[in-house]
Design goal:
The chain is of the alpha/beta class and 286 residues long. It has helices spanning 15-22, 26-34, 51-65, 76-89, 92-104, 109-130, 135-155, 178-190, 203-212, 228-239, 253-259, 268-285, and strands spanning 12-13, 41-43, 46-50, 164-169, 192-196, 217-221, 244-247, 263-265. The strands form 2 sheets. It has a 5-stranded parallel sheet, sandwiched between helices. Strands 1-3-2 form a 3-stranded antiparallel sheet. Strand 4, helix 8 (178-190) and strand 5 (192-196) form a beta-alpha-beta unit. The structure holds cobalamin.
């Protein structure tokens, strides 16, 4: 595995830049340097870390923690099998350690959602439907996924100017908040300010929040076959002048567009692409 990038080999990083690469807090990285774990130089009164020293330390750390292959070569089905069993046995420590190793290996927020948490929740849903898992099993696993998502988000901050403001919700009658949370985490990691309203939200509340926060778009998640809530929410948000991005396992692209959405996305990666495109299109139209 190779994390070192040829063009950045001679790059000197500040502690904050190095913390961003590692995906940890500044203070954590500072402690590593003070302990002598990561080699650093002092320049102009502050620490500087050579990118190649940081890469070497990361590689060594990953090997100690259990090999995590590079992006693109990662065995997501194998990772999903492992995390599934931690979630089903309630082993939250093992789940957290697995996530931390993947974070150290550079996995993106979209990969976590689309290749790991999403497929596991689908599997849990199927087993639950067949009666092989209880509601309590599902609730425990869902709650752990929520906590792991927070962990992933904290480790992937996106400093700098914000791309825009988004309101995310599941409409009235839809109690699935997790898909919206995944989209929220994905968009925040991409640099959006996101106002996540959770599930079962009346349309008027969604519109009101979009107005108060001068949203650039509203992202609605739909996980059920029930159509009243989503149809009403799309119409209300669109009539109030906000572009609507729709996604989720309960609805397809053609139907979402027919109901008035400007775009549809089937994954967190597509949510990120679509949100960026909507913001660009709005800026160009002004
Ligand atoms: C957890 C869960 C619950 C939890 C929700 C907890 C929570 N905090 O969210 C609770 C217990 C509340 C629940 C309740 C019910 N549930 Co439920 N639930 C699930 C389960 C297991 C996981 C949902 C989830 O988080 N999936 C993972 C996400 C990440 O996948 P996703 O939604 O496809 O999202 C991905 C993409 O679609 C995309 N995306 C999602 N949203 C958006 C939005 C935008 C804008 C974009 C661009 C992209 C995008 O990104 C995501 C990441 O890749 C699913 C199983 C499944 N197949 O999903 C059933 C499931 C959704 N539930 C189902 C059912 C039937 C119910 C109940 C009716 C059961 C009952 N008899 O009471 C109730 C009530 C539903 C209601 N009125 O809302 C069915 C829905 C069938 C259908 N099409 O109608 C499913 C599919 C289970 C099944 N196999 O039958 N559920």
């Amino acid at each position: 595995m190779s994390r070192a990038m040829g063009s950045t080999e001679a790059t000197m990083l500040t502690l904050q830049e190095a913390a961003d690469v590692v995906g940890c807090h500044y203070q954590t990285l500072y402690r590593r340097v003070r302990n002598g774990d990561i080699p650093a130089l002092v320049a102009g009164g502050s620490y500087r870390i050579r990118r190649e020293d940081l890469d070497a330390w990361l590689e060594e750390r990953d090997q100690r923690a259990g090999a995590v292959p590079d992006r693109g070569q990662r065995d997501w089905p194998g990772q999903a099998d492992r995390l599934f069993s931690h979630l089903i046995t309630g082993d939250t420590d093992a789940a957290r350690q697995q996530i931390d190793r993947l974070l150290g290996g550079g996995a993106s927020v979209a990969e976590f959602c689309d290749s790991l948490f999403g497929p596991i929740l689908y599997r849990i849903g199927d087993l639950w439907r067949k009666g092989d898992l209880t509601i309590a099993d599902e609730h425990r696993a869902s709650r752990t996924v929520e906590a792991l998502l927070e962990r992933v988000l904290t480790a992937r901050p996106k400093p700098g100017p914000k791309l825009g403001s988004v309101v995310v919700a599941a409409p009235r009658g839809d109690r699935h908040s997790l898909p919206g949370l995944m989209v929220t985490v994905g968009l925040r990691a991409d640099g959006f300010v996101v106002h996540h309203l959770g599930a079962d939200l009346p349309s008027a509340e969604i519109v009101d929040m979009a107005r108060r926060e001068s949203a650039d778009l509203v992202a609605l998640s739909c996980s059920t076959e029930e159509r009243e809530g989503i149809a009403e929410a799309i119409a209300a948000v669109r009539d109030a002048g906000f572009p609507v991005l729709v996604g989720g396992s309960g609805i397809g692209g053609a139907e979402a567009i027919e109901l008035g959405a400007v775009r549809y996305g089937g994954s967190v990666a597509e949510a990120q692409q679509s949100a960026r495109a909507i913001v660009r299109e709005r800026a160009a139209a002004r």
